[in-house]
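Memo to structure team: turn this sequence into structure tokens by end of day. - J.P.
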Amino acid sequence: MSEYLRMSGIYWGLTVMDLMGHLHRMDKEEITEFIKACQHDCGGISASIGHDPHLLYTLSAVQILSLYDSLSAIDVGKVVEYVKGLQQEDGSFAGDKWGEIDTRFSFCAVATLALLGKLDAINVEKAVEFVLSCMNFDGGFGCRPGSESHAGQIYCCTGFLSITGQLHQIKADLLGWWLCERQLPSGGLNGRPEKLPDVCYSWWVLASLKIIGRIHWIDKNKLSRFILACQDEETGGFADRPGDMVDPFHTLFGIAGLSLMGEEQIKEVNPVFCMPEEVLKRINVHPEVLS
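Reply from structure team:
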């Protein structure tokens, strides 16, 4: 049932385990062999064995192997060629050979290449032009030019501009205001106006605010209480909202949100890559963050 997103599921689970200092409890060899089996001749990596390759799962795989310091397990050169081949004439990126365009894929492309030390393989200038064309009057970003601002897309675009050294192009105060307005009376954050709060936006919204230097614009105590109310006392996992079913996706982003707010029991998380800061320091990746 979850096979179509298994690679990302492994990334969510491993990252949250690493943030809590328990990565050693996971089977590194089995996971590495699974990723190797998911790399295709074109260089791209799929969600599971027998599935089509996609940028989303290629990034997840590269993140996992970066956690384990095991990038040599895959053909890195082919991954670079795969990502490069998905860039379009206008600078945007398709997610796979079927051609869907989305700013999520722009982020996945540059994040993958940055982790591999190969950002110069693509036309960065054109890629930046496309992402900036998706900026809206409210300071936010959508999935394509003219699309509605959404916190998930804002995270992808601010992360993209951080990696490419273009954060000065963002209207930080305007965007920060839009983002801090996502906090509701419950303390939780939503992804756009008139929507319910969801633990995953404790990451998409909060990480974006951290990247643009405006994280102090929200009430951290109220948000912490909301996130902790979403933890299931029996299983330990986190749900989207209090009382709902827990899952690895919301567990990672709940824990990562707490890390952004300085929770001492959790390792420091990088707001751009959603990976432990110590991993990025080890591989010498230092994305830009506004102060």
